[in-house]
Amino acid sequence: MPTFRATLERGTQSRDVEAVVEGDRLSLRTPDGRVGRWSLTELGLARTLEGFTLTIDGDRARLRVAEADAFWKAVGGQVPTWWRFWSPATWTAWWRQRRAWADYRSKARKLDARIADATADRERAARELQTARRRHDWIRSLGPRDVGIRTTESETGLATVPDVTLLETRRREGQVAWRAVDFGDVHFTDRRMVFCGSKNVEFRYAELTTAGLRSEGLYVAVSTRKRDHILAGPSERLAVLLDACRASSEGQDPAAMAVAETNRASGLLESTAERLAALRRERDGLTRPGRPISPAWLPGLAAALLLFALGAYADGNATTSSSAPPSNPVQSTPSPAGPTTSTTTTSTTSTTTSTSTTSTTSTTSTTTPPTTVPVVAGGSVDGEMAVHFFDVGQGDSTLLTGPDFTIVIDAGRHDRDDVVAHLRRAGVDSIDLLVGTHPDADHIGQLADVLAAFPVTEVWMSGDAHTTRTFERALDAILDSDAGYHEPRAGESYDIGSAHVEVVHPTTIGGDLNDGSIALRVSFGDVRFLFTGDAEAGAEAAMLQRGHELSADVLHVGHHGSAASTTAAFLSAVSPRLAVYSAGAGNQYGHPSPEVLQRLADQGVEVYGTDVHGTVVVTTDGEDLTVETARRANAPLPPPTTTTTTTSTTTTTSPEDETTANACESWQVDINRASFEELQRIKHIGPDRAQQILELRPFSSVDSMTRIKGIAEKRLADIKSEGIACAG
Ligand SMILES: [Zn+2]
Fold first, then answer.
1. How many angstroms is it from 503 CA to the middle of ligand 1?
2. Cβ distance 439 to 462 under 8 Å?
3. Does the global pTM surpass 0.85?
4. Distance of CA 439 to the CA centre of its chain
């Protein structure tokens, strides 16, 4: 009677047993003499990587046998694999695990959402505290009795509040004319001190658009007997004055009020930080169950297993010695997948009754590698990530979607409205992370539209400010939205669903918008993507110098392919397999630069461009990459032909490429692609007409240049006889 030493694990319990095989019967005997007996066929014993699994009273158990091969031989392959696979207990366990997983996911998601909210609250509280402290400092600098406006050149009570300008006003035919003058330069005839609360001081909220002061905000109007004066400055600082004035006119101490406000803000910060910490603890405390096989796998898996089991069954019947036992249909892998694990423990079996000592040291070595069954690879990711490099003209917008995340990097140009439509078409209904790499209008142009169209969990911006309306619109939209806000810095890293995001730039911002671009390295499974916004050589050198891991399979070429970016050193550190640049067809900047294309070609990188290919979608399962493009039959750009001084892009002809059908000679100026300056090499084309050309593009032929104002038959004839112009 073959007897084997083994360990039986059920749930968290584990005990040493002796396994005896006798015909169709398996007996397990514990040291204290308890015995359980089963029919092998009914038991559904199956071999796994770590031993054997069996179902006892509806519970999954694991049997580790010291001599697994001999044991399996003794069992004689009598237990067909398909039985284990089709056994109802297997499916019950699988279903239980699926429920546990779904339950975990929903709890985790809810907590994540609350954490995101709490993070935003904490940031808001931190900003409030900062504001309160600043106000406090200003009020203190005013001095206790100085709350008022002194209109004397020697006494500069107000001058201690920086950045406040005095506007002198004169009434003229019912209109008020404003003149900005420096506080220090003003001479007043009236030496009267005007105190707060007196009739002569009035606070107004107004909008000034003249005299170069376009900002709106709070203004202090000071009326003296002869003139009206207006104090203009940052609203916040004037608001401090206003509050201080009000307080002192009501007999209160403005400084004490500021202290109270600071205390309140600091208390708020403390409580939000505590709430956040509690939520984080709760999130960390969630136990993550084994992840079940994703349902998408099941039909394929079932079919493969059926074929495999039939084969194994036939083999088992033909040769009873079964030298190579069938491997378990669902391999247990480093991250437990499939129905092999069970979380429930009900100890009703006769084999285990007393408390047991755990022994988890020995993992039985197995002979069959998991090659024949399409199992979910351990440690890898489920599903796919698709990275859409949208064709948004001369601008950037990239969408990364995966099974459990949606990330948008940049939101196109301010003078177009295509990004929301692109996102909708790609099936986006909410966004986890929206990144504005830097505040240029070709990157955050439609950030406000995206925020209005979709719920966004968090927005990242570089922290640089810009003076444009587009930037202000984006900021307003962020403030109006429920999204959290963060300015990421190099060295931070985040898991957003199954995507891992590393911030590789910037460390600080120095006012150079491009070089302050947020650069991100995003990993999905074993595949990496690098996005650097409009970072130029300086920023690239900084990233290299800081020693970030920059290697990536796919590079989003920096700054639309400009020659100022993608240095050879940077490119060799990234060493991508594939590169995509975002640029508008025939853009006035000559992007992408032939030098950059050459550098990429020198490294053997496949290149795609939104100007040529339209929207480019790179899909990965975490290992392999596939590329789909809207135009041009999914073929990468050919390597650049010899670069020339004037024409901006390559002039290769291929049958499916309609844009370069009329090839231009290298010395010609392509009216569809040349830069503003280059265009002016053409006869009769000055700055005005060059601008028109940029706006009227594309031209089907040189003849259609008559669309340009001022170019008629005679001038067209001149242009054609000169021969420089061509329509590529
Ligand atoms: Zn740009």
1. 19
2. yes
3. no
4. 17
